[in-house]
Amino acid sequence: MRLTGPLARAAYSAGMWLAQPLLRRKLRRRAAAEPGYGEAVEERFGHYDAALRGWAAAGPGPIIWVHAVSLGETRAAAVLVAALRERLPGLRLLLTHGTATGRAEGLRLLQPGDRQVWQPWDTPAAVRRFLRTFRPALGLLMETEVWPNLVAGCRAQGVPLALANARLNARSLRRAERLAVLSRAAYGGLAAVWAQHADDAERLRALGAPVQGVFGNLKFDARPDAAQWARGRQLRAQDGRPVLLLASAREGEEALWLEAVRVFEEKVAAAQVVPGLSAINNIAQWLLVPRHPQRFDAVERLLREHGIAVSRRSAWQDGVPPPSGAVWLGDSLGEMAAYYGMADVALLGGSFAPLGGQNLIEAAACGCPVVMGPSTFNFADAATQAEAAGAAVRVADMAEAVLQATRLAQDPARRQAAAEAATAFAAAHRGAAARTAEAALALLGGPQRVE
User: What sign does the CA torsion over 146, 148, 150, 152 have?
Assistant: First the structure.
């Protein structure tokens, strides 16, 4: 029997309801490594304490709900929230997340009168309790977070719900088309969609999404923390060697890096040993920054098992790395501007495994040239544009990345040209925040000012 739309959503809802015990077990396991997952668990199921239940009626401003599932989406949301506040003073922000890193980063966005809770698990009951508790005037989902019951619940309660900074790669489109009976209703039920790129817009329209504009990527509007960046530059100037950064590395990529560096040293670096340095740091100072904090200890163990000394950022006295032959391990959150400021060249994490790559725009904004692997579908357009602008180089694998990064770092003129190209590339694509904020406020019936 072929399911119709209502029957398909009923079956989906039943599956989500039955999966709740599995979600609770998963959260308990994640909380062992990241305590944030153990906080306020009942919020995920639409149950809130008395203070939250009374919040919606406690203030005069309109409640704008922004859902930013994880770290990258939260950083993109930051520039949109700033643009909304500029145009709508007095708004009250309701911020939701799905991951502990997103929630921790989201704390930076909150002002007095704002609230932060977990995204409701996508059952009709949890969504209904969420919407009735907080009564948002407008909902903004960041990038890809389209959930069938969340969309249906907003339509039922008259809450305009839009997808901002929207992206959809070809793989995700194929997956959504296999579940078209659910996905078409979900995408078609949105009040508006604002795509990052024309290709995203085309794929989103193929699912019935009401694409109303192609506004660019909000991440271009994010400015690096100036104090962090300056500190990073200061640290970089203290050592004569170039600094090479493996940025936001995902699981398995450090092992690829270890093998690539071993091969590189055997073939190229044997005659360039600097006394007092470990072999891995002969030509350049390496800095590794894992993407997820729960992996910091595991990465240190991996390096030490291969005989490599490690100097962790958290152990640096006054934030200054001690003189040694150790590989630096960036084991802190919220300091990527400092790490990019320290680096002469960055290898893009997530692009050397089939994971789609991390945010190369952040590196470009810091004037840090990027060497990226073959997998960049999460930032496909930005990666293509960065390569064309001379801000990034694409390579086939980690071995070639180590070689190209080292060559670039040792060529001051070429490195400076690439850094200038990166800065210009980031600046040339700004403006999405203003366009998105104006469109969002139009869903409220035009800009409102609440003093």
Answer: positive
Percent of the chain with pLDDT over 90: 79
State in words which class domain 226-428 has: alpha beta
Q: pLDDT tens-digit profile of 124-136?
A: 999 999 999 999 9
Other Cβ atoms less than 10 A from the Cβ of 161: the count is 24
Mean pLDDT for the stretch of residues 266-274: 57
pTM of the model: 0.82
Report pLDDT for 23.
96
In 167-305, beta strands by DSSP E: 192-195, 211-214, 243-249, 285-290
Q: Contact at 8 Å (CB) between 204 and 234?
A: no
Q: How far is CA 366 from each of CA 232, 274, 284, 397, 424, rounded to the nearest angstrom?
A: 10, 29, 20, 24, 10
Cα 257 from Cα 398, distance rounded (Å): 6
Contact by Cβ (8 Å): 289, 249:
yes
Residue 447 has pLDDT above 70, yes or no: no
Considering the chain, tell me which residue range(s) the CATH 3.40.50.2000 domain(s) occupy: 226-428
Delimiting residues of CATH 3.40.50.11720 domain(s) in the chain: 5-216+431-442
pLDDT in tens, 35-79: 999 999 999 999 999 989 999 988 888 999 999 999 889 999 999
Judged by phi (left if over 0) then psi (alpha if -120 to 50, else beta), residue 327 lies in beta
* Neighbour order of strands in the sheet with 327-329: 310-312, 327-329, 285-290, 243-249, 345-348, 370-372, 392-394
Q: How far is CA 289 from CA 158, 216, 304, in A?
A: 44, 28, 16
Residue 316 is encoded by which pair of tokens? 């640096």
- In degrees and rounded to multiples of 5, residue 49 shows phi and psi of -75, 175
Known catalytic membership, residue 254: no
Q: Catalytic residue, from 43, 73, 143, 253: name it.
A: 73
Q: What is the distance of C-alpha 223 from the center of its chain?
A: 15
Alpha-carbon span 451 to 449, nearest angstrom: 6
Question: How many whole angstroms from its chain centre is CA 70?
Answer: 6
pLDDT-derived band at 449 (thresholds 50, 70, 90) equals very low
Note the pLDDT of residue 322.
Answer: 84
Buried residues in 191-222 as b, exposed as e (16+ CB within 10 A): bbbbbbbebbbebbeebbbebbbbbbbbbbbb
User: What is the C-alpha to C-alpha distance for residues 419 and 413, in angstroms, rounded to an integer?
Assistant: 10
* Cβ–Cβ under 8 Å, residues 209 and 188: yes
Pick 5-216+431-442's CATH classification: 3.40.50.11720, 3.30.160.150, 3.40.1190.10, 3.20.20.120. Answer: 3.40.50.11720
